Target: Tetratricopeptide repeat protein
Amino acid sequence: MTYVSRRPPPLWLENPLLRSTKGGTKRRYRLLDTTRTYAAIKLGESGELDTTKQRHAIHYREVLQRHESSSVAMSRDLSLRSEVLGNARGALDWSLSSANHTEVGVSLAALFAPFLSELSLLAECHRLTKRALGVIDEPDRATRREMELQASLGSSLMLTEGYREDARIALMRALDLAEVLGDPYFQMRMLRSLHNFHIAIGDFRKSFELAQRNEEVARKTNDPAPIAVANWMLGLSNYFAGNQLSAERSCESLLADPSVLRNQSSNFGFDSHTETRVRCALAAIRWFRGFPDQAVKMALETIHDRTDIEHPVTLSTGLVFSGFMFVRIGNVPVARGVIERLIAHCERHSLGPHRAVGIGLKGVLDIHHGDAEEGVEMLGGAISALQADRYELHHPALLGSLAEGLVKLGRSDDASATIDDAIARVEDNGQAFILPELLRIKGVILASADQEDLAGAERLFQRSLKLADVQHALSWELRTAMSFAELWIHQGRQSDGCSLLAAVFNRFTEGFDSSDLKAAKALLGRLRATPGL
Model:
């Protein structure tokens, strides 16, 4: 037990049995370990051990209650964090193991779990909430205590063990309780978590439904912060659906006044790092829209230059977004650095699904800029791991890269099956933003020497160009225009290829050092050098 005082210590406390430390404005006193052990033995002999441990648990429940609305601030107070962690853990271990004191343990666990989540102690949060829900008594069911425990269980499960059905069930139970208890802010918190869950498993139609439902709840509050978050959720759904202009507007509106979130986010459980996530999404959108330089600048400012990314999950999300973007831009040194940082970060914080994405991105880089055989093996292993975790979000994009690697290895039949799988997935789940690229890759496979279905390839390239234009995804258009031009070169239609590629290339105003634009410029040079063109 720790004694806390705001006043200078009286002389009688300055003795060899106590150790004194100062944390902020407080001075804390702790018995030496040998003294503590002796005192605990004597307390047990007196018959007052259980009573004292109960008082200890209740005291730290009250400490957490006082800081319930500011778990972020409490997690950053190193002195308070150290005191609460050790004492709450001890109190929970005792109370949840005692049949007569589970009520104290469950109530303490409901307050402690969000604190663990804020510290990204997700595996511990999962174990604690599962244990507390296993001993919860009837009076605590369908209460705020169960609601918080179910919410923390579902969120921690998603991030440590993958997007399993038991995580969704826990989040749905918490949402149902929030509706029964009439708590709109907790409803929005759970709708956000479920929105993330369904995006992760690749159910984008459901994610749109949840985003729209969240918007309805937010507007009833007349609170600018939840309304801003609702706009962000709809924007993220639009991003994955390929509605890049709508997604861009959502991100820009949030960044125009991020103080709305910074000042009010704690009122409804939205983490304080939303701005970082919005910046990462906007950087990716900038690349799709044909502004590679802007994308690079924004990504580097977000993951390297900013010092406020403290939450491990927020940072891993930013690194995933940026990793994909730098791979697509073709900046190999930066991409490798981001990917290695992502993998090490996820290993350190037990973020299994994001670690598998990092391994997959490493394989993609090898396929395009290294050993294709090693890249295919690495990428295949990552995809298997993501399937086991039900993390479908990046699956189609990685399958597309795997198909490209298989073509390089001369395995065109395997490549065809792989790209068909990827296309079927996105056509089924609504993840349309990647579809122009997948159609292009399938067209390249059909045009390869092993298959030579040139008419089929042409149809796919035309479909890809049309879809990329609808999505305002100029970068996808450029890739498809290059593949289409290469096809027409083999058909003796250099003039058509040159006209198509030049029309797309000339719409770019920046990014001429990126790999795609360099390749397009070189291809245009070849076409224009053709005699008679």
